[in-house]
Amino acid sequence: MTMIFGLQEPLVRCFLLLLFHQIIILFVIHHSQMRSRGIVLHSLRYGDHRIIVDIFTETAGVVPFIVPQSHGGRNGMKASVWQPLALVEVAWQPDIKKNLQHPVELSLWQPWRTLTLNPKKIAIGLYLSEFLYHSLHREQENRPLFEFVVSALSWFDERDDQFVNFHIVFLLHLTRFLGFLPNVEDWEDGCFFDLQAASFTRVRPYHKYYLEPEEAALVPKFLRMDVRSMRAVGLNRSLRQRALEIVSEFYRLHIPEFPESRSLEVLAEVFE
User: Fold this and answer.
1) How far apart are CA 158 and CA 166, in angstroms?
2) For the CA atoms of 17, 18, 23, 26, what is the dihedral angle to 10 degrees?
């Protein structure tokens, strides 16, 4: 049997075929254009004329893009396509050698009706975009999660009233996709809620990250409803603020390096 580089010829042939196959795959990925719907999570100015935009795409997960900014009559993309929570359609030529991708096309897919005009909705939207950015920044393709976010935000956009608890219900239901959804079936009257374990217990936890039974009883109430029935739970301003503090702490305990919310105080001021 013929030997090549100390290896039998069939083995060499097999190795070369596998190598050729991998090269073809990389070539196709590199040269094929991708197109997807997406949700803008975060934008950051990069120099004088460009913006880094993180978009949660339906088909490729979170993708960071570098986008030319429009200044008057100059070439560039309008600010509306990189505002937080904008629903966009984006096309790009994937470049596996670069972290930042360059969009070939970027346009609004579904303009919001009230989310960018109502002051209370703007405050809630900024708060939610902060959470989504830090929760999903490493997210791969996840179509059920994408559909959940789009559907919930679309409902929020259409509502003219009774949406003040939307962000609390939304963030609690988001934990289903992030892997730390509390099991409400374990709740009984008088239980504590262990924020670290994301579970209910009749024994007071040994650490400080837990809710007393009175506050713990609100968790199953919120999780057993959806955004359409959330008005069934009435919260005054102080209770709503406390609920947001609990949700923030809950996320920080389960997502590494999850920061303090910068928009929580603004949200509180808007709803005073």
Assistant:
1) 12
2) 150
* Cα–Cα distance for residue pair 198/247, rounded to 1 Å: 12
Residue written as tokens 């990189």? 82
Q: What pLDDT does 232 receive?
A: 55
Structure tokens at 118: 């109502």
Gap between the Cα atoms of 134 and 203, Å rounded: 32
CA R_g for the chain: 24
**What is the rounded CA–CA span in Å between residue 228 and residue 244?**
19
pLDDT (0 to 100) of residue 27: 53
Positions of the chain with pLDDT lower than 70, given as ranges: 1-17, 19-31, 70-77, 227-234, 272
pTM comes to 0.82
Asked if 135 contacts 251 with a C-beta cutoff of 8 angstroms, the reply is yes
Q: Facing residues of 4 across strands? A: 7
Residue 100 — φ and ψ, nearest 5°? -95, 125
Query: For the packed helices 119-136 and 143-158, what is the interaxial angle rounded to 10 degrees?
Result: 170
Enumerate the β-bridge partners of residue 37. Answer: 89
Residue 131's pLDDT is 95
